[in-house]
Recover the amino acids of this structure.
């Protein structure tokens, strides 16, 4: 899909440049969205810790929507060689791999991102998760290849700003 770049008859971007453009634009959108959402919620007094649980669940689902589909596509490509007819096993395998990766390495990443780079509080962590999730939803719906990690890092920077 070419929403940001109109396709002309004479010139077109190479796929690598197009992917790089989407990755840069998605990071800018995530950063700006995080800043705007934080300013919108500046005076709000909400149960941030409880909201953070919901935002983390949404963020996890969006991580799976972006990165999970890439791994699932690779498995589906290799899958016909096994002679199996159902896609249930590859989908469950991808879910299990993402779950184990988050379970085993997620704590260190959260600590580095939320304390090492920018000192996030409950509210800014919520804003970061919601902003990155919104950006990932947009990119997933449009089928844009983006980096989940870069979007989340830019969102953390925007909420911490």
């Amino acid at each position: 899909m070419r929403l940001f770049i109109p396709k002309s008859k004479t010139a077109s971007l190479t796929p690598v440049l197009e992917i790089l453009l989407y990755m840069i634009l998605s990071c800018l959108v995530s950063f700006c969205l995080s800043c705007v959402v934080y300013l919108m919620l500046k005076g709000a007094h909400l149960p941030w810790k409880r909201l953070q649980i919901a935002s983390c669940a949404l963020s996890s689902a969006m991580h799976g929507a972006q990165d999970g589909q890439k791994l699932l596509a690779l498995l589906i490509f290799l899958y016909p060689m096994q002679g199996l007819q159902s896609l249930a096993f590859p989908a469950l395998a991808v879910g299990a791999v993402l779950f184990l990766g988050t379970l085993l390495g997620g704590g260190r990443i959260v600590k580095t991102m939320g304390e090492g780079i920018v000192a996030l509080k409950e509210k800014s962590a919520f804003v970061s998760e919601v902003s990155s999730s919104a950006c990932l939803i947009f990119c997933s719906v449009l089928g844009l290849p983006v980096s989940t990690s870069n979007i989340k890092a830019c969102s953390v920077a925007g909420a911490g700003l």
Notes: The two ends are 32 Å apart (CA to CA). Residues 42 and 53 are 20 Å apart (CA to CA). The mean pLDDT is 82.
